[in-house]
């Protein structure tokens, strides 16, 4: 494990964990992100992780995060997100975004949301369901 940091991306604030594995002539770096709030889905992400192949590897190859320290930080962040999730409710907008994102991808869901009628997305907000 090379890096652990809380940061933002286009979708929300997460814990980012960068790992590497052997691959060809050089190591392949993968970054996993989770344990945060997904703004489009309007929910806490604490039961799944997303990942991408990272291009951050250049300076990280010699950097290491001790396994126990990483586990402690991940466990603490998981508890925080789980507690926050128990207090929040996802709106229609968040549920529809999540459905579209699962069928297409995150970027496609943002585009599709722009074309949906306002009444479909905000019905629960008018009724103060959230």
What's the gist of this structure?
This protein is of the alpha+beta class.
Instruction: State the domain count.
Output: 2
Radius of gyration based on Cα positions? 18 Å
Low-pLDDT segments: none
Q: Sheet with the most strands?
A: 4 strands, antiparallel
What's the β-strand tally?
4
Description:
The protein has helices at residues 57-60, 67-85, 92-103, 106-115, 118-126; strands at residues 3-9, 12-21, 28-38, 43-53. It is α+β, with helices and mostly antiparallel strands and 130 residues long. The chain has two domains: 1-88, no CATH class; 89-130, no CATH class. It has a four-stranded antiparallel sheet with strand order 1-2-3-4. The model has no long low-confidence stretch (mean pLDDT 88).
Describe the secondary structure blueprint for this structure.
Layout: E1 3-9, E2 12-21, E3 28-38, E4 43-53, H1 57-60, H2 67-85, H3 92-103, H4 106-115, H5 118-126
Antiparallel strand pairs: 1-2, 2-3, 3-4
Keywords for this structure?
5 helices; alpha+beta; 130 residues; 2 domains; 4 strands; 42% helix; flat
């Amino acid at each position: 494990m090379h890096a652990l940091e809380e940061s933002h991306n286009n979708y929300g604030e997460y814990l980012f964990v960068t790992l590497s594995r052997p691959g060809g002539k050089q190591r392949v770096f993968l970054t996993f992100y989770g344990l945060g709030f997904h703004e489009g889905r309007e929910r806490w992400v604490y039961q799944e992780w997303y990942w991408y192949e990272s291009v951050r590897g250049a300076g990280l190859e010699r950097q290491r995060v001790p396994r126990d320290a990483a586990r402690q930080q991940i466990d603490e962040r998981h508890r925080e997100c789980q507690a926050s999730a128990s207090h929040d409710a996802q709106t229609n907008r968040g549920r529809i975004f999540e459905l579209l994102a699962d069928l297409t991808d995150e970027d496609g869901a943002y585009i599709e949301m722009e074309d949906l009628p306002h009444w479909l997305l905000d019905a629960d907000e008018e009724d103060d369901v959230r």
